[in-house]
Design brief:
single chain; 300 residues
Length: 300
């Protein structure tokens, strides 16, 4: 059977920033006072390492970057569910990708829902950076983690199916979606019984374009890739962390649901790959359409 796309019937999202609704912690302590349960945790860090206080600081710091530097503009944001689990996926680009924080900030600021970002465990191993990444909502990209967040906790989870192949591609190959791995994101969504919500992103390719790579240095440093970017050539050391102010445009596509029973031990590999490729092609078509309408990299 083919996938069916769930129509969006909610009103368009407001541009007004709404308070974030963090997940309520599970009550494990004894009843006190009038019967309310006391949260036994001594901080706001949840089981995934996410801290709402850190996220609040991140929103305050990244807010001006989001609205003034990247001038992010959403289309059909109302297609993202306001309740229940959903797997958000997007195209990934830029030597140091800015798309993940843009999506997480935008959804949290506009819809008031936390977003957990799945990424390679490599980030968790970096001293200091790994802890900050975790506190800001980063979770190692493992199937069990994704399932628990989506199925058991009903959270929004962000993943980039291109993996490292997305941000490591050269500028000459911009907006050409790489293969979506083995379709693992589809299988997780099937098992968890949640929709996949594709997000086509224009602007990230130009924030930190890769001109060429130095694989020998990447191997020596033990990193997935070592790029030479236009930012580095123009700004020197600052180019390692300062992106160009390309305008971000993000289009939320129709949620994709699957006519399968959740919680099955396995799903047909051919079906998983077919659905994965169909979603990839839909996103690629949307990117081409958005690029054909764009007048300027900097102004949109």
């Amino acid at each position: 059977m083919s996938s069916r796309r769930a129509p969006a019937q909610r009103p368009r999202a407001s541009t007004e920033i709404v308070p974030l609704r963090p997940p309520e912690p599970a009550s494990e302590g004894p009843a006190v006072g009038d019967g309310a349960s006391e949260d036994p945790r001594r901080s706001d860090v949840d089981e995934w390492g996410r801290s709402e206080r850190v996220r609040e600081v991140a929103r305050q710091v990244f807010g001006p970057v989001y609205s003034r530097w990247f001038r992010a503009e959403w289309e059909d944001l109302d297609k993202i569910p306001t309740a229940g689990g959903a797997l958000l996926i997007g195209n990934h680009a830029g030597a140091v990708p800015a798309d993940a924080p843009v999506v997480m900030h935008g959804v949290e600021a506009e819809l008031g829902r936390p977003v957990y970002g799945l990424a390679d465990y490599f980030f968790r191993t970096i001293p200091v950076v790994g802890t900050l990444w975790s506190r800001a909502g980063g979770v190692p990209a493992r199937p069990d983690n994704a399932y628990r967040l989506l199925h058991d906790q009903g959270q929004l989870v962000l993943v980039f199916p291109e993996g490292v192949k997305g941000p490591s591609k050269r500028y000459a190959d911009r907006y050409q979606l790489r293969r979506f791995g083995r379709g693992g994101f589809v299988e997780i969504a099937m098992r968890a019984g949640v929709p996949v919500v594709p997000i086509a992103i224009v602007g990230s390719e130009e924030t930190m374009p890769i001109l060429w790579q130095v694989p020998q240095l990447a191997h020596a440093l033990g990193v997935p890739y070592f790029p030479v970017t236009a930012n580095m050539l123009l700004m020197g050391p600052l180019g390692l962390v300062v992106p160009f102010p390309a305008k971000f445009k993000l289009r939320v596509l129709d949620p994709v649901t699957f006519d399968v029973e959740p919680d099955q031990e396995r799903y047909p590999k051919s079906r998983v790959m077919e659905e994965s490729e169909r979603i990839r092609q839909t996103m690629q078509t949307a990117l081409y359409d958005m690029l054909s309408r764009r007048q300027s990299i900097w102004l949109g």
